[in-house]
Amino acid sequence: TWQIPRPPKNLIQELLSYDGLTPTISDVLDSLGISGAIPGSILKPVIPGKKIAGPAITLKYIPEEITPAQAFHEKAKAKLADRDAYALTEPGDVVVIDGGAKGEVSAMGGLSTLVAKKYGLAGNIVDCGVRDIQDIRNLDYPVWSRGQTPISGKFRLAAWEINGQVVCAGIPVSPGDLVVADDSGVVIVPQRFIKQVIQQ
After folding, report:
1. How confident is the model at residue 3 (pLDDT cuts 50, 70, 90)?
2. Is pLDDT at 1 greater than 50 in this prediction?
3. Is there a contact between 50 and 142 (Cβ–Cβ < 8 Å)?
4. How far apart are CA 67 and CA 46, in angstroms?
């Protein structure tokens, strides 16, 4: 069940050569009556000047029920699943994390970035906060997030589902949808429209 259809690599390379990447695709989606664009003011690039395109692998978090202090006290196990999601990826994939739009809590940091980079991922789109900003920049790994925060997601977030449909800043994202992001923002192209959108 983990095999998701992925657009051909040459299509993605062609796409990345375009100027005005997300605005152009946003316009094409408008013409098809699909809302798929997320402004860069909502999901901001941690490293300006990056552009990525690739198929989505999704991860959904829900709020953890116990407090961080309780969890530390009880030596509870953290319920983050970024590594599990990365293990299902292929190089060039984009991991989309639905953290419930909580910009103040981190869903990824330096270690997570290191692992993502090792897997050869194109980048991460995080509808949640991220931390260890300097590490992300030093690793030169493209990330778009709702917020930058020192607050850990450990004992605050619990993994709910990997590769189900998620909602990212109000836009539904399914595994295999095409994720495109640059300084203007993020655009999600539903899988069945990918060829049509790229051919426009």
Report:
1. confident
2. no
3. yes
4. 28
Residue 189's SS3 state is: strand
Query: Distance (Å, rounded) from C-alpha 55 to C-alpha 5?
Result: 8
Angle at 65 between CA 60 and CA 66, to 5 degrees: 130
- Cα–Cα–Cα angle for 155, 161, 164, nearest 5°? 150
User: What pLDDT shows up at residue 29?
Assistant: 96
| pLDDT of 2 | 61
Judge contact between 59 and 82, C-beta under 8 A: yes
Question: pLDDT (tens digit, 9 = 90+) per residue, 76-135?
Answer: 888 899 999 999 999 999 999 999 988 899 999 999 999 999 999 999 999 999 999 999
CA distances 186 to 22, 87, 178, 191, Å, are 7, 24, 10, 15
Q: Are 44 and 144 in contact (CB under 8 A)?
A: yes
Q: How many whole angstroms separate alpha carbon 162 and alpha carbon 16? A: 27
In tens, the pLDDT along 22-41 reads: 999 999 999 999 999 999 99
Dihedral sign, Cα of residue 2, residue 8, residue 186, residue 30: negative
* Contact of 146 with 128, CB cutoff 8 Å: yes
A 10 A CB-CB count for 171 gives: 20
